[in-house]
Amino acid sequence: MTYQGSTLLVDERAVVTPGGAHVELIRFRAGVVHFTLHDGSTDPPRGSLALPADAQSAVPASEQATMVGAFNGGFLASTGSGGFEVDGQVLEPLVAGRASFVIDANGTAHVGVWGSQLPHPGEQVTSVRQNLVPLVSGGVPSPSVGDVAAWGATLGGGAAVARSGVGEDAAGNIVYAGSMSATPADLANALVQGGVVTGMELDINPEWVQAVVAPVPGGALQTAVPGQNRPADQYLVGWTRDFVVASAG
Predict the structure, then answer these.
(1) 49 lies in a domain?
(2) In this structure, is residue 71 part of a structural domain?
(3) Domain contains 3
(4) Into how many domains does the chain fold?
(5) Residue 138's domain spans which residues?
(6) Which residues have a Cβ under 8 Å from the Cβ of 92 and sit 6 or more positions away?
(7) What secondary structure does DSSP assign to the chain, as a single string?
(8) How far apart are the first and last CA of the chain?
(9) Which pLDDT value is given to residue 2?
(10) Predicted TM-score (pTM) above 0.85
(11) How confident is the model over 43-53, as pLDDT tens digits?
């Protein structure tokens, strides 16, 4: 596979799936990019919990200085799609068997099934974002990708809507996928085209799918999913929903 604009940190590739969907892939390189999970201003609800600046709903200046990208999280907490832990504090109970984006104390991220594949033995986990069951497992799309209803409620009831996902390839790189019109099968196939071994769906529908990248650490952010609704500075000024920041480090 060939990514365009390849750097030592982040690179991108646009793919067309067998179903004809156009999906943008963003690969964050293992070992040179670290991650932080941010809670949204309204979801998941944190109650009276106090979170540090690098876990709140706007990216602080200190984190912006090394930021190379960011992308949306998963479904609303009220959907019961999985648990949520940020900075060691559990906002929604973690669920065994759910696909999970896991960040450890070093900022390294992995994608896998909670309770079986993750956490790794001895891994000091700080943040976890779960969402449904795996969309890709063993480098193969889930056998239920044709059941659109199993992958979230879509606006208007259509199968092809804005969708996003994230996975991990065999080298440990994290790969984000986003499209403004894709079915679950399209999203799964795009992740497989990106080399993903284990992948999960993130949020869907046009208001929520958003990713940004910077040409250099701390550089001007650019929208990464063609046609996305939200502007490039949305995560800097603050967002209502959870999201992940990728930084050089």
Answers:
(1) no
(2) yes
(3) no
(4) 1
(5) 10-44+56-248
(6) 44, 77, 82, 83, 84
(7) ---BT--SSEEEEEEE-TT--EEEEEEE-TTTEEEEEE--SSSS--TT----GGGSSS--HHHHTTEEEEEE--S-GGGT---EEETTEEEE---TTSEEEEEETTS-EEEEEBTTTBSPTT--EEEEEE-SS-SEETTEE-TTTT-GGGG-PPGGG-SSEEEEEEEEETTS-EEEEEEEEE-HHHHHHHHHHTTEEEEEEEEESTTT--EEE-SSTT---EE-STT-SS-TTHHHH--SS-EEEEEE-
(8) 25
(9) 47
(10) yes
(11) 999 988 899 99
Instruction: Tell me which residue has tokens 């958003």.
Output: 210
Query: How high is the pLDDT of residue 7?
Result: 60
Using left for φ > 0, alpha for ψ between -120 and 50, and beta otherwise, residue 48 falls in alpha
The answer to whether residue 15 is domain-embedded is yes
Specify whether the backbone of 186 is left (phi greater than 0), alpha (psi in -120 to 50) or beta: alpha
